[in-house]
Amino acid sequence: MIEILNEKIFHLYNEKISYIFYIMENQQLGHLYYGGSLGAITAHDLAYFLERENKSAGTVKFSPDSGLFTLADRSQEYPVYGTSDFKEGALDIQVADELWYLDFQYAGYEQTAVKERSLGRPASYAYSGEAETLIIHMTDADHQLALELSFSIFADSSAIAKSQVLRNKGDRDIQLNKMLSGVLELPSADYEFIHLSGAWLKERHVKRRSLEQGTVSIGSLKGASGHQHNPFTALAHKQATLNDGQVYGTNLIYSGNFLAQAEVDEWQRTRFMVGIHPTHFSWQLEPEEIFQTPEAVLFYSDRGLNGLANEAARFTEQYVIDRKWAEKPRPIVFNNWEATYFEFDQEKLVTLAEEGQALGMECFVLDDGWFGQRDDDRSSLGDWFVDTRKFPNGIKAFAEQIHQMGLQLGIWFEPEMISPDSHLYEKHPEWVVRHPYERAAFGRGQYVLDFSNPEVVEAIYAQMKTIIEETQLEYIKWDMNRNITEAYSTYLKTTGRPQTEFFHRYILGVYHLYERILTDFPDILIEGCAGGGGRYDLGILFYSPQIWPSDDSDAVERLAIQSGTLLGYPLSSFSNHVSTSPNHQMDRYTSLKMRQEVCLFGPLGYELDVTQLKDTEKQAIQANIQFYKQHRSLLTHGTFFQLLSVEDTTNEVAWGVCNQDKSEWLIGFYRKLAQANPANIEYLKIPMIDQTKTYWINQTEQVTGSMLKEIGLKKPYQFNGVNHEQMHVSGDFQSTIYHLKEVR
Ligand code: GLA
Predict the structure, then answer these.
(1) Cα 519 to ligand 1 centre (Å)
(2) Which mutation among 371, 374, 444, 529 tests ligand 1's pocket best, with the greatest number of atoms within 8 A of CB?
(3) Nearest CA among 570, 503, 508 for reference residue 541
(4) Fewer CB in 10 Å around end: N or C, the chain?
């Protein structure tokens, strides 16, 4: 997978992609190519591309004796600002009031095939033979700095993972103001910048805009990746469609403040970069200390947005999420939040659990309100011991009851938070993230705990461990409901570290708590959550195989949320709960049929008062759960395709998922608003079906793959004012599931 030509050109390749960079005349690293595989090549093959005439696009030359050589002409691997290239760079350093203009020169390489999964920090991992990593050593002799640039390539994947380590080899402290993780330079600007953005209750809607000269960026300064923007971004060629054309993607295996940006220069070339957001960040590096960036991943596909989504999903399932979760079926969850909110006691919960169990659910998740004295969201965060008013016999007795029913048990925690009305706050007010100012912003009645302080992490872990052991817990819902303001740590102050390190140290503390839990309880399934989808990223997915993607459980809104999410993440990474109608976030009425059919795609759950259901509704839920159990592996780990548009404004949405040999498919078709006097016959084409096969449709009709590709599935027959007898669907919020199975 890695070849080195003339000790100068580095080629990482597999059957899908080639990634090429080289040592430039000035000994820095130039980028040459990332795209479809070129196969094995020779230096001779590349001579044509490397023989640059130095047309001198830039007016400033690299040095007086470098001829016409200017960095403005070149694509670079890890650019820095300050000499003959005026674009923003990936790395900024200063010492006292002096800015350093860096010059990292090639100093050798090493190769390794080891990429272990280590819980200390989220990063991609691979088993033997699945990945190779090339580490390039660079040195800046003037500034006594060593930089390692690491590039990994994976079997059967278009991904290139990049990370960097900077070492201070000098004898002075240096101040690192910026150190991004992923850079990709493209020779044109014929792309659309695609990002997944929104807000609470409307996370990860697909947004796109054309690149122009100048910079577009998205990011987060909230201490978490955030509801508003997601670290997954893409550059789709202007001519790329859903199934065709060149698309590049990037993501960051990180959960804190991030920046993703594309800068187009005056020659219409694009520099795409991602990493820790440099605003309010700097790191003090003492002699011999290192700083390691989070890992960035680049993806490539020439099969349009679906191709990119497949690449990102497969990579995430295989090389980021713990692979054991691909083998274990995800439990069908019953969560009591929208059923009870804070109004429950043990008896009520047991009744809900019994009812849920009778309907086929497999794991009871006890949500917020079981601890301290928490009857609303104003108190008790930080007091992770059971409220005996609600559980008179303790949490252990409740857990035993749940387990005796044959259900797994899950419990909600919000480990990073503290309520002012809590025992923890009385004991440790200094553990709160808070500036010494009088003024401190307040969110959802709570403060954030200082997770940059290892003692805090340890104290929270000790409390959680007791509960996990007492309840023999199978599942944790790990929530995080407010963002960080007035970022300031008493701990950093007392240890002499700069406050600008806070955000990064905070998120490392979060990862450390994950590490503590999963080291002691490796089989526990942790579901991530942050007021819904406020921290939906590869850092969290490294530890949590699934994330609650949004507090909005409305079936129509979920079409946009799930479509956006599926552009960058796998089906298995988000959980869907069927909730009541009218929906609690939108006050919208939708049928149970549609709610269940939207929730089928991904890990399934229910979150409504099951004791209030009519018999017909119970039967429908039982039937859906039975269907889901038969197809669970396909619906959580199958290959996903968008069949219509991914835009959130579209009236029709269609999702398809198939197994590896495409012999079985489940296709969901959804129409938000009914149309007046619609056409009698409309079709839904399946472009990626296997044309050599013939399929059963819903076990009743047989159709060839070619016909499904060229003509399509019949969309449900809509009501047109007169066809009362023949129509299949009427009114707004329609849905249909098709099951295709190869005729053998
Ligand atoms: C957040 C979560 C919800 C629920 C509540 C409980 O909003 O996203 O699912 O757990 O907290 O307070």
Answers:
(1) 26
(2) 529
(3) 570
(4) C
What is the rounded CA–CA span in Å between residue 294 and residue 252? 7
Judge whether residue 680 has pLDDT over 90.
no
Pairing mode of beta strands 9-13, 17-23? antiparallel
* Catalytic residue list contains 523: no
Q: Report the separation in Å between the CA atom of 705 and the middle of ligand 1, taken as the mean of its atom positions.
A: 44
Ligand 1 neighbour 450 (Cβ under 6 A): no
Mean pLDDT of 257-273: 97
Which has the closest alpha carbon to 19: 238, 130, 181, 183? 183
Q: What is the structure's pLDDT at 67?
A: 85
Q: What is the mean pLDDT of the chain?
A: 97
Ligand 1 mutation target, pool 200, 365, 379, 479, most atoms within 8 A of CB: 479
* Model confidence band, residue 592 (pLDDT cutoffs 50, 70, 90): very high
Alpha-carbon distance of 97 to 91, in angstroms, equals 17
Give burial (CB, 10 Å; 0-12/13-18/19+) of 725.
Answer: exposed
The finding on whether 368 has its CB within 6 A of some atom of ligand 1 is yes
Closest residue CA from atom 2 of ligand 1:
531
Ligand 1 lined by 552 (C-beta under 6 Å): no
Does any ligand 1 atom lie closer than 6 A to the CB of residue 176? no
The answer to whether 479 is a known catalytic residue is yes
The number of residues in the chain equals: 744
Contact 89, 79 (CB under 8 A): yes
pTM of the model: 0.98
Give the residue from 511, 498, 575, 513 showing the smallest Cα distance to 540.
511
- Catalytic annotation, pick one of 551, 554, 648, 690: 551
Integer Cα distance of 494 and 504 in angstroms:
18
Distance CA 73, CA 651 (A): 46
CB distance 501 to ligand 1 below 6 Å: no
Structural domains in the chain, CATH included, are 2-319 (2.70.98.60), 335-633 (3.20.20.70), 652-742 (2.60.40.1180)
Residue in 103, 387, 421, 479 annotated catalytic: 479
pLDDT digits (tens, 9 = 90+) for 392-415: 999 999 999 999 999 999 999 999
Q: Inform me whether the pLDDT recorded for 289 exceeds 80.
A: yes
pLDDT tens digits, 641-678:
999 999 888 999 999 999 999 999 999 999 999 999 99
Nearest to 255 by CA among 562, 528, 549: 528
Distance 227 CA to ligand 1 centre (A): 14
The least confident of 23-32, 51-60, 527-536 is: 51-60
Residue among 183, 230, 208 nearest 89 (CA):
183
Burial of 412 (0-12, 13-18, 19+ CB in 10 A): buried
What Rg value do the Cα atoms of the chain yield, rounded?
A: 27
Cα(461) to ligand 1 centroid in Å equals: 21
Over 422-482, what HEC string results?
A: CHHHHHCHHHECCCCCCCCCCECCEEEECCCCHHHHHHHHHHHHHHHHHHCCCEEEECCCC
